[in-house]
Structure formats: structure tokens, C-alpha cells
């Protein structure tokens, strides 16, 4: 005679939400992933963000069917009491299953090969232009090519972090280190930690690092209450300096995006030098060092400091296009405060994301971000299939009366600036007191 099933309530499950006591539920079965979180390939943050609750939809989104068999060793013997699945989640899971049957997650197309060839061509042109020409205009063109090189490396790094773009895990890791660390100077380990947290907690003001840009930007007045960042583990103080900077953020947005790469360099180095667990730390550090050898060496071959400064600014500015693209998909979308909820995965991803309308021949420019809704719902799906699955997602949103927001590249920029301006004007409200700052008072004193 089979033993009766043992159940735990939702309230009991929620108590197990700490790093030293971490439980989750998947399809009604309760798992203890406390030890697994320390070696989880996606890092500990996705598990911590969904700790103490059902995480089925997020698990389905991030893992192929072959992973299910490994869950048994984490099974606690308990089942979740009153476990139920919403109609939205049922349809979402069916869609994932259909795409799996169609083989879409395995068919990756030729984007990786084409991108690598294009990057190799850009590298040759850059070094040839610097070493074989004395023309300032040629050097400026090489700087623009360097920016394009970093953009393409960003798309490949993004893809390789979500799914295996090469024939083996070893080759996939090699491409990550080469395109991310060596070519662009960005730690793929930092990117994966940051990006996985963003995907799980899409547009949560206190959990999503992609919205936490204080003191320079605040997309919502809710930041003015000095929220705590659970990603950076610090309070985001809305002080007088922050108020001053945020008050003009709709004017400073594009200039800051032109040099935003500096922040990525800094964040990569801070993580690699920190005490946090970083998989393959030595690989990561060596890769970043390669970048800081070849890029300064390239600059040293320019004839004077004027051209060197021009080269850096031009290469950073061109790459700033990609930084703007990263912001367009989420800055003007719905935001919320609090931890992500595993039971409304589909709803949160669609409400917090904006697609960019474009013709298929412009897909290379957006690198998959033009179908950001589809990418957030199916992060393992190669970008060559995003346009193909878009009608299915749109239909599912329509069926359940959920938003499917999209806008042209121009209108997305307008919406982003409008959001920043609205928050900027609210930041100027003196009814919300902050510590006094002489710079703020001098700039904003009238009469």
C-alpha cells in the first residue's frame, strides 16, 4: 500500500526563503535547493528571488526537458497544498512544449558563424586602419568599427549566456570569454549574474538591477523613498545630489549612454576582485586582462593624444547605441516594488517589456531585443526564431487580455524620454524634503 502524500501549505513553504534554508515548488512538488543554489549554473540569485514559492514557469522557461530528471534528488517528500495552475500558465507551458516538439530550441541557424566572421573582419579593418594609415578620418572610422565590434560581441555574449550557441559547452565557454572578456572587456560572469536577476525580477524596482541606476536615473518616483537594492545589497539613497541629477535625467540620458560602457568595465572588475563566488574566476580575469592589453596598445599606436581621446569617445559613443537599446525595452514599461512572484511569470514578463517594431532586414541591428517580450518568455529560444513565434505570443496575450506593447525605434525613444522627464519633474518637487545641498540650491534658486 502506497504511503499517503505529505503536504505543506503555501505559508509553510514561504518560511523557507533564506540562503541557508531554501525551498521551491515545481509542479506542486517541493524541493530543497539550499545546497544546489551554491553551484547552480545560473547563479544563486534566481533561486533566492523565487525562494519559498512555486517556480514552475520560470523553471520551464530556463531549462530543457532533459533537466527534469535531476529534480528528484532535491525532493523533500512534500507536496504543495492547494496547488493550482492559472489558465495563462497552462497555455504558456503548452506553448513551450509545442516549440520544443518543433525543435526550435535546438535549431540555432547561422547567426553565430556570420557574427564571428563579421567581427573578425572588423578586427582586421581596425588594426589595418590604425597601423597602415596616417589619416585622422580613417582612424575615426576605425573607432566607429570598434564600437560596432563591441555591439556584435554584446549580442553574441547575450546569446551564449542564455543557450549553447556552439557545438559543445567547451566551445560555448570559449566564445563567451573571447567575445565578452577579451574583445569587449566585460566579464561574462558579471553579465550572467546581472542578466539572470533581471529576467527573473523583470522591472521590480528593488530586485531588477537593470532599473537601478541611481544617482543618475530613476524611472519612477517610487525610487524617491530610498529603496533597498536586493541585487547590490545596499540602500539607494535619494539624497540632494541624486535629486539634482535625476531632475535633469531626460537631458543627460543620451550623453550618459555614450560613456555607459565605463560602468560595465567597473562592475566587471569589482565582481572579479570581490569575495563573491565567481565560476572560473581565473579565466574571467585573464580574459579581461587581454582586453586591457590590446585596446590600450591600439590607442598607443595613434599619433597623438588628441586622436586617442577622439578614438575612445567615438568607440564609446557608437556602442552607446546598444546601451540605449537595452533601456528602451523596459524603462517606459510597467514597474513594481517587491520580489517577483512565480505564479504570475507570464503576466510580469509581458507587462514589464516593450517590443521594437522593425522590418526583418533590420533584425541584425537589434540583436533580438526587438522581440524582447518573446525573449523574456522563452530565454532559451535562439533569436533567429523570435520573429517566427511572435504571432503565437501575441495571440496568447490577446486571449488572456494581457498587454503586448510594441513601438517603433523612434517612438520607443520618445516613450523613454517621456518616462524620464515625468520622474525628473517629480524629483523637483520640494514638498519631498531631502538633505540640503548647496549645488542644488544654487541651481534652483530663483529671484
TrEMBL record:
The keyword Electron transport does not apply. The keyword Transferase does not apply. GO terms for biological process: lipid metabolic process. Residues 5-89 form the Cytochrome b5 heme-binding domain. InterPro entries: Cyt_B5-like_heme/steroid-bd, Cyt_B5-like_heme/steroid_sf, FA_desaturase_dom, Fatty_acid_desaturase. It comes from the Eukaryota. The chain crosses the membrane at residues 111-131, 137-156, 252-273, 285-305. Pfam families: Cyt-b5, FA_desaturase. Pathway: Lipid metabolism. GO terms for molecular function: metal ion binding; oxidoreductase activity, acting on paired donors, with oxidation of a pair of donors resulting in the reduction of molecular oxygen to two molecules of water. It is found in: Membrane. Its main location: membrane. GO terms for cellular component: membrane. Keywords: Heme, Iron, Lipid metabolism, Membrane, Metal-binding, Oxidoreductase, Transmembrane, Transmembrane helix. It is a multi-pass membrane protein. Belongs to the fatty acid desaturase type 1 family. PANTHER family: DELTA 8-(E)-SPHINGOLIPID DESATURASE, FATTY ACID DESATURASE 2. This is Cytochrome b5 heme-binding domain-containing protein. It comes from Manihot esculenta (Cassava).
Amino acid at each position: 500500500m502506497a504511503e499517503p502524500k505529505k503536504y505543506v501549505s503555501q505559508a509553510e513553504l514561504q518560511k523557507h526563503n533564506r540562503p541557508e534554508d531554501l525551498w521551491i515548488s515545481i509542479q506542486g512538488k517541493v524541493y530543497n535547493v539550499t545546497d544546489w543554489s551554491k553551484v547552480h549554473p545560473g547563479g544563486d540569485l534566481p533561486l533566492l528571488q523565487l525562494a519559498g514559492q512555486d517556480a514552475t514557469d520560470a523553471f520551464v522557461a530556463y531549462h530543457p526537458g532533459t533537466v527534469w530528471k535531476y529534480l528528484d534528488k532535491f525532493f523533500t517528500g512534500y507536496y504543495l497544498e492547494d496547488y493550482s495552475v492559472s489558465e495563462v500558465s497552462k497555455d504558456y507551458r503548452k506553448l513551450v512544449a509545442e516549440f520544443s516538439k518543433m525543435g526550435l530550441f535546438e535549431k540555432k541557424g547561422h547567426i553565430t558563424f556570420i557574427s564571428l566572421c563579421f567581427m573578425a573582419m572588423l578586427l582586421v579593418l581596425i588594426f589595418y586602419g590604425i597601423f597602415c594609415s596616417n589619416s585622422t578620418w580613417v582612424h575615426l572610422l576605425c573607432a566607429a568599427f570598434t564600437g560596432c565590434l563591441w555591439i556584435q560581441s554584446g549580442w553574441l555574449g547575450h546569446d551564449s549566456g542564455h543557450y549553447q550557441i556552439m557545438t559543445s559547452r567547451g566551445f560555448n565557454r570559449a566564445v563567451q570569454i573571447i567575445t565578452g572578456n577579451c574583445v569587449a572587456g566585460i566579464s561574462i560572469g558579471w553579465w550572467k549574474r546581472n542578466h539572470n536577476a533581471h529576467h527573473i525580477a523583470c522591472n521590480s524596482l528593488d530586485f531588477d538591477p537593470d532599473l537601478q541606476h541611481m544617482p543618475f536615473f530613476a524611472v519612477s518616483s517610487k525610487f524617491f523613498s530610498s529603496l533597498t537594492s536586493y541585487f547590490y545589497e545596499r540602500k539607494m539613497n535619494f539624497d540632494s545630489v541624486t535629486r539634482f541629477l535625476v531632475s535633469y535625467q531626460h537631458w543627460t540620458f543620451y550623453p550618459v549612454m555614450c560613456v555607459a560602457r565605463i560602468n560595465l568595465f567597473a562592475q566587471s572588475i569589482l565582481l572579479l576582485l570581490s569575495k563573491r563566488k565567481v565560476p572560473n574566476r581565473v579565466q574571467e580575469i585573464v580574459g579581461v586582462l587581454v582586453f586591457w592589453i590590446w585596446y590600450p596598445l591600439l590607442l598607443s599606436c595613434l599619433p597623438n593624444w588628441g586622436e586617442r581621446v577622439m578614438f575612445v569617445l567615438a568607440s564609446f559613443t557608437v556602442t552607446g547605441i546598444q546601451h540605449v537599446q537595452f533601456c528602451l525595452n523596459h524603462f517606459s514599461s510597467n514597474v513594481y516594488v517587491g520580489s517577483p512572484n512565480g505564479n504570475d511569470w507570464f503576466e510580469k514578463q509581458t507587462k514589464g517589456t516593450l517590443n521594437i517594431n522593425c522590418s526583418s532586414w533590420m533584425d541584425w541591428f537589434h540583436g533580438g531585443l526587438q522581440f524582447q517580450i518573446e525573449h523574456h518568455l522563452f530565454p532559451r529560444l535562439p533569436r533567429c526564431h523570435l520573429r517566427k513565434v511572435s504571432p503565437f505570443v501575441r495571440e496568447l496575450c490577446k486571449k488572456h487580455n494581457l498587454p503586448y506593447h510594441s513601438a517603433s525605434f523612434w517612438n520607443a525613444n520618445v516613450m523613454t524620454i517621456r518616462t524620464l522627464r515625468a520622474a525628473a519633474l517629480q524629483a523637483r518637487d520640494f514638498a519631498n524634503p531631502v538633505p540640503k545641498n548647496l549645488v542644488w540650491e544654487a541651481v534652483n534658486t530663483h529671484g
